[in-house]
Amino acid sequence: MTSKLLCAAFILAALTLSITFSLQPDQQKVLLVSFDGFRWDYLYRVPTPHFHYVMKYGVHVKQVTNIFITKTYPNHYTLVTGLFAENHGIVANDMFDPILNKSFSLDTMNIYDSEFWEEATPIWITNQKAGHTSGAAMWPGTDVKIHESFPTHYMLYNESVSFEERVAKIIEWFTSKEPINLGLLYWEDPDDMGHHLGPDSPLMGPVISDIDNKLGYLIQMLKKANLWNTLNLIITSDHGMTQCSEERVIELDQYLDKEHYLLIDQSPVAAILPKEGKFDEVYEALAHAHPNMTVYKKEEIPERWHYKYNTRVQPIIAVADEGWYILQNKSEGLMLGNHGYDNALAEMHPIFLAHGPAFRKNFTKAAMNATDLYPLLCHLLGIPALPHNGSLSSVQDLLRPTAPRTVTHTQSPPPHHGSGKPGEHEQESNAYFIGVSLDTYCPVKYQQVFT
Ligand SMILES: [Zn+2]
């Protein structure tokens, strides 16, 4: 190995070390915010100055691949566990577990049975086991007892509690005598209005503007509490939304005798439990019933969905094409917007933005997986990550490199690298930092090493 190569290897190792070292204590605060159903391109539908403010002084990921099925509870549990649905066990908003012989239903808010949640351990529990405290304002699952624990502070779910009240609780917990290091904040829109109006409706413009104003309010309150520059704010969502229509409805009653099966979950992924001895009959009747519906026996579910290896996935699933709706019959009515479809579809993808001392500034990344958020959160909080399906190295480029603690620099780094509290108008100078590190370890210039 030439001296140049040896030198490059040493530099890369040193840079890796510098990134994987834990952050300064005042950098270890995280507020994770979810605006339910905020599709990735809503950012550009109408002016969203507050979202763009976060993008300018923070990071933005353009394409986030969430998990199948692209529903609310499965994806919110992925964000806090890093697991696919088949691994965390929240496989749908409406489920039946044949071993527990119990049902889980978002429609009836019958979601408080701990056993449904305990195939995984969410980050607030791991955070608290590491000696920290967490606070949750309505994030799905945070008012459920999981592995005998709740978040240190939490609010019982009540959709009539205003955004401002939820923000006030979060600020109170971050600024109390024993401050939390992890906050989770959830808001129901633009999902609710997206279902009601359909995402193509021009009336969605004011809905998106309202969310932007809510983000502006959150930023204002964080600044007032002196948290804006010390807290890592991550803004994301669970899924997008696509336009549906009364002309694109698949009625199961047209093909199946409803006495032969139970419909556990409906559109766009119908979860079908045939009654005893009726599997073949149900499958054959459904398999080629409609050109816009693909029917899978459980074992045939595509591997890329990471969806088949869980007892709560029913023996047959029928998946609608984008924009199509599966109903038992039309008397049930449909929503003009829906989600839950294939997670490869762009319209199912959410947003991802972040701002804070750990993040780079004015940095755009092309793509990430929703499962990568969990190891990133664990890294930011300085806590051990449990086994997960994500990758910290895939998202590490979102982070500012931190100064190695065990190395004496032969020249001083730029002042803001040591402070941990970047000012609002500082420019990202990652290239300069690499240059400093190279100068520290090796006499060659980085242009020579990496060309
Ligand atoms: Zn949702």
TrEMBL record:
Region (Disordered): 405-426
Subcellular locations according to the entry: Membrane
Alphabetized Gene3D superfamilies for the sequence: 3.30.1360.180, Alkaline Phosphatase, subunit A (3.40.720.10)
Origin: domain of life: Eukaryota
UniProt-recorded Gene Ontology molecular function terms: hydrolase activity; metal ion binding
GO cellular component, one term: membrane
Annotated PANTHER family: ECTONUCLEOTIDE PYROPHOSPHATASE/PHOSPHODIESTERASE, ECTONUCLEOTIDE PYROPHOSPHATASE_PHOSPHODIESTERASE FAMILY MEMBER 5
Name of the featured protein: Ectonucleotide pyrophosphatase/phosphodiesterase family member 5
Organism: Myotis myotis (Greater mouse-eared bat)
